[in-house]
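Hi L., both proteins are below.
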Amino acid sequence: MARRKRKYKGLTFYQRKKKINMSVVKEVFSYFFIAVFAVFLAGILTYTFGMSTSVIGVSMEPTLSNGQTIYMNRFAYTLSNPKPGDVVVFLPKGNQNTHFYVKRVIAGPKDTVLIEDGICYVNGKKSEYVTEKIKEAGIAEVEFTLESGEFFCMGDNVNNSEDSRSANVGPVKIKDIVGKAWLHGESETDKIGFIK
């Protein structure tokens, strides 16, 4: 039997058409979507719960000390108002050119405030949040009523605090409150703790 000679036609580049594997495409897109969603969620959580600032001064001692880092919950007062006892972060009179103030809410809208003989009275009763005898009554030496959306805030170290008693600060409006101080970093040990 005679072998047939194959005629040499030169180089040929034979390529099979590849089919796109849809399951691989779906998997790649799902990973991409998860990555984008994770970055978006991290950004939202950081903006809402992770914004931080430092305490300036000794006005919140012994609760918070000078230079201590605190984290704010910016979402806390979207649906509800600050309550007496909350530690809030605000810009006094909305002044963007000053540092954040960190103080405790003593009274809220429609409450009456009076500081007499070194004692802070809210609605005629001694405030449970001010235990130290107050040397300077400031604007609260005459009883007044907070308007809607206003809060009376003081430092825990009342005799070393510029707060709502001062005409420079006055009652804090809800629009000037940046958020609730909810976590703090211990300056010496770097431990995180909740603010009470």
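That was the first. Here is the second:
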Amino acid sequence: MVQNRIMKRILYCLIVLVLNGCSSGKSAYKHGDYYDAVLTAVQRLRQNPDHKKSREILKLSYQPAVDYLETDVQNQINSNANFKYSAAVRDYEKINNLYEQIRASPGALKVVPSPKSKYKELTDMKNKAAEESYEAGIQSMMRSSRQDAKDAYFYFSDANIYVPGYRESIEMIEKAKFNATLKVIVESGLGNLYDWNFDPVIFGYTANQFVKFYTPRNAEDNKIGKADQFLKVIVNGYKEGFPSISKRVEEQKDSVKTGEKTVNGKKVPAFEQVSAKVTIFEKKVTARGSLTLLIVDGENKAELRNADIASDVTWTDSWAIYSGDLRALGSGNKKLVERREPNMGRDYLRNQTKVELDKKLAEAMRAFYQNF
């Protein structure tokens, strides 16, 4: 063992000497990360098959990388660590990744003509990892908390990834997710005069896969039993103000070309000073809508969330009139002069207020349910 450590150290020092001043994998070697060093060298050789320093890096680092991973597999298997076979799977996948990367690089194949693969060993190890994860899922399911059910969901999912359809992993995934899911019944709020419907926001919630919303009828059809929470959105009202008009007056002057004149026998541009007074009008209408998000605990009926959500929206538009010489006005003011007093479209602010309330309600739900 001591001799192996000495040889590894000597090999590492040789690599450092070779790489002194070379950027190809140098940072990986500083930490003895042979795996990343191989990948760096192979990538460089894919771009330049004759890159001398990358060839040297690959030659010196490939076998140590494989040796390290193979040793780690044996250490994992011989240990009492949890999920040791999952760790071994990752090591074998790394060896196979090196194999595939080198085979896809003609320059790397010249350096390592016979890279190792561990596909058979990987298949065997995946079966053991699937069993390992599946049993961990069973143990978690035997406990009763939602967090245990979440853990079981991921364990069964891992088992199904290692070996698709492993035992009853698919059925157990569904059962674990059902147990892990916070079940929220959405109660109808009072009707409102604006025909605002927030169900698409509520039932469109996807930020947390372990939270699901039901109508009372859906809850009954799905036999969810007791709800974990009840949620209600109450529309408090909508108010739209009267239009207000403000104005400001600007004095504008400019020098405009009117033709040419002769000065000392030469023609030069002729300019004229012009001025105008422009009055700019701005029409503004403001609106405010609000709702209450109420969330109640399904067991003790305690209020978990009682928050008012409000949205303030403003519509503005402008036009102008002028006196004096139109040529004195800038292009922006000329466009305003061409306009007449604007009028807001019907229900524009009401619709915009609903859009903003949708956004704020969605954000409030994301913030509340992100940790469930």
